[in-house]
## 1
Amino acid sequence: MTHANKDIHTRLRDARIGAALAVLTILFGFGLGGAFGAFEDALKADLTARGQAVVATVYGGDEAKAKSVADRSFNYYKRAHLHGGGIGGAALGLIVLLALLRRPTAMVRRVIAGALGVGAFGYSLFWLLAARAAPTLGGTDAAKESLEWLAVPAAGLLLLGLVAVLVLTLVDLFGRPPAEA
């Protein structure tokens, strides 16, 4: 292995936890897509059954409202799928870019990569959990509110990680070249 390749490999190892979480997030998104293909009717039936179980207490007997919430909940499954693939891929790309930069220390790489990986997985998981909770809570807004504890920190970690990679990229690529050791 050449010196340059060894350095890149070392920097990628610094970011390994975030990278593994980003790949897991992509798998999560792709896995949901596969589940839709194999079990779409069963997934929709489960959401409907969740609403039907509480139609008298949560929906005041309004079966049409319960069905509407179950239908919107399936759209949240789709959001989980799309966020998993999209945000997971973006997080992985940012982590690789971070590993290619020369200036950040190993600890900075670990923290930023971890923030991106945890944020990507957490935000994708939020949409899945919101989809499952909405029928029993009476609506998608109630489901999102009940899961703010997951959505807000996950989105925050993603945004902080993105801004950190942007700043480090600008410094590394547009700043004064680092002194050669």
## 2
Amino acid sequence: MPSITLCLPIYNAERFLSEAIRSIRAQTFEDFEVIAVLDGCTDRSEEILIAEKDERFRVVKKERNEGVVAASNLVIGMAVTPFCGRMDADDVMHPRRLERQVTFLADHPDVDVVGTWFDYIDEQGHSVGGAFEFPATHEDIKNGFRVRNSMGGSSVLFRSERMRAIGGYTDQDPYAEDLNLWLKCLANDFRLANIPEVLMHYRVHENQLSKRNQAETWAMTNLAYKRYGRQIWGDDAPVFELGAPIHRRIMKKVKRIVTGKG
């Protein structure tokens, strides 16, 4: 049995899928399997996957698109390995990503989820920005979430049993699934960490879901903090009103400062 199961959700990813798969196959840590979920694809993704994969890849084909949350939870449920992680079909992994992460989790048995820093690449794979430097320690990550997402969704490796115990990703907020999961983890006393190295290259392109659904992402972010904030921070939980009129956000902030909860 391998040590890692890597979830690879694929939906009409023909432009970047070959590069993503090749970066997986190039890992210095080779004791892994990939469960690739063809999520109702209507392009050449299946053809490319079959041509590029090796014997470590298992393929699940869905007839209709159900989204990254359903695909990820399917893989979490199927995984029999100690560790499970995710890889997006348009991103690129550094060759030592899995090696560094599995070593970290072995050396830190108290940590449940470990992510990494990432940088940005364009549609041609060229670097278009420096490192996105997430906080490294659990306490700094927890504090960081008071302001913004402090874990990179496609960079993480986590303990499979722990993630199954809380039900994995939630399908309630499809445009903020990563943020939702990390807040859910914090609410369930998971310990989080980030390796302060660029071990993922995050692709920036026009068809990204986050760009197409900004208003929905804002709304789902607000709901995620409303759902889990008090469980994590108690009465001092931050209040997010992304997308709200500026005067309403200002008045909300003033109220929290006056009441001592800002």
## 3
Amino acid sequence: MASPLDHDPKFPHYWSEHPRDKVFGANTNAFSSRFSGFSICHPIYHENTMLLATRHAIYSAAVSTEETATFMLLPSWNKRMTTNPYASLCRKNPHMCKFLGTIPSDQLQYAKVPFWNNVQIPLPKHSWELKIIAL
């Protein structure tokens, strides 16, 4: 769930929602196989995609015969996460989901893009917190 521009090449696999990214080695359907082992999931900020990713991580862990841990990085549009569908799903499955912590909005920063050659495009400040959830 990345683009070729923000994919970390230290990770052997990455997924993109865009079929054109196959040229860069992307898998294009993150839900075509179960999450297994240790993984990090930071899906695009689309409510349905975040809900599907959370549901898929819960399902993957529930049916796995190996140790599985997916660490989700999900935005908190409001401080208590009371209206987010993915947070509601986590609260309904406390035996599978643990809220580990929060990264405050003022601590979130975009990485420096090395190939912009001193031409930085100003990006918006984060106005949301990022929740870390283990499934």
